Every structure is written in C-alpha cells, then in structure tokens.
Amino acid sequence: MAMFRSLVASAHQRQPPPGPAGGDSGLEAQYSCPICLEVYHRPVAIGSCGHTFCGECLQPCLQVPSPLCPLCRLPFDPKKVDKATHVEKQLSSYKAPCRGCNKKVTLAKMRVHVSSCLKVQEQMANCPKFVPVVPTSQPIPSNVPNRSTFACPYCGARNLDQQELVKHCVESHRSDPNRVVCPICSAMPWGDPSYKSANFLQHLLHRHKFSYDTFVDYSIDEEAAFQAALALSLSEN
C-alpha cells in the first residue's frame, strides 16, 4: 500500500517546473492551482508530497484533524505546509499572454488583469447561454427529495444550505468522533443513505466545500481572517 501511495504521489506531482519549458502559451496552466484553476495566489506547498495550492484554497483542509492532500489524497502534517517562495519568485519573473487581449502580463498580476480585461469580459458575454429543456406536461412527483437544504447529521439542526452546513459542522462539531451519514450525498440519486463517513468533516470539506465558493470575491475582513489563519499555521512549523 505504501508503494502504491508513493506511485500515486509521483504520478500526480504538480510542482511547477523550474522554467518556462512549455513556452509562454502553457505558463498559465503550469502555474495554476489545481483547486481553483486560476494562477497561484499566495501559494503554499505541502511538505510531504510537494503539491502546491493557493493558500486560501488549502485552508479548509487544515481545519480537520487528519488532512489529506486534495490532489493525491495522501495524508500530510498541517505543520509542514510552507509558503512556496520559489513559486512566488517565478510568478513575478515569468510573463504569459492574456487569454483575451493576448497582452503579456506577469503571472503574479494575471488575476487582476483578467478581471478587468475587456476582451475577457466580451468572451464571457458571448458564451453560449443555457437553454432549458422543453417544459414537460407530465406531472411532477411529490416525493422528490429536498436537495436544497439539509439537516446536520450530528445535532439535527435543520434548513441548512450546503454552505451553512459546512460552516455549522466546522464551528460546532469539529471534534465530534461519531460516524455519520452525509446528508448531501444521501439526497442524491446515487447516494447510499446507510453509508457512514469515518471522517465526515474531511469528506464535507473535500467533497462539498468548493461547489459553492470556488469563485468568491473576498472582502477585506475575510482577507484579513485568511492572512491571520495562514500566518498561525505557518508559525507552528
């Protein structure tokens, strides 16, 4: 099993290369976080497997007792997560063409540029619109399960949407060792209502965290909170 995990880690290695080996056109992809799929922002690296992520993208994984790397799923020590200073230097050194206007921009400034690039905005506006299916005349079943709000599997608190459920469980049940059924998964057609997660918080943060806040604009207070949490995690190294 140890050998298999080692092979998986090496096969999924996403450490950015030391130079722009793929040319300018592939630089943005080479230096993109595997969670948010955007150019790294304040990158951090996991010591055991070497995988790199945006600092704020990795934060949810640091809030559970036994974290797993989001990419290779190997366990890691949260005290051995460090700032990826070598990646930060490369982000400041290398330039890549904007996906919209084709202007060469330093990777460290790519996020800011893309958010204000008129060509990118135009491309987004011209994306195909969602076309709903033709309305059906068949009656809607009355026993369709509720997949919008959920009850906490620990204390039974009700009417929590997915975001509220994640926040509630992290704040109120972080140390609860009980095995529970994931209410989000069990509400799905493929879900098993009898399967109990051995580490529900880990499952919740890895499986359901990024479905609601992948593209969130953080406020000043949230940014300050992130900086404080990251600084505390790194100071314990």
UniProtKB/TrEMBL annotation:
It is found in: Cytoplasm. CDD domains: RING-HC_RNF166. Residues 33-73 form the RING-type domain. Pathway: Protein modification; protein ubiquitination. One of its GO terms (cellular component) is cytoplasm. It is an enzyme of class 2 (transferase). Keywords: Cytoplasm, Metal-binding, Transferase, Ubl conjugation pathway, Zinc, Zinc-finger. SUPFAM superfamilies: RING/U-box. It holds the Pfam family zf_C2HC_14. Gene3D superfamilies: Zinc/RING finger domain, C3HC4 (zinc finger) (3.30.40.10). GO terms for biological process: protein polyubiquitination; ubiquitin-dependent protein catabolic process. It comes from the Eukaryota. GO terms for molecular function: ubiquitin protein ligase activity; zinc ion binding. Residues 98-117 form the C2HC RNF-type domain. Its EC number is 2.3.2.27. This is E3 ubiquitin-protein ligase RNF166. It comes from Heterocephalus glaber.
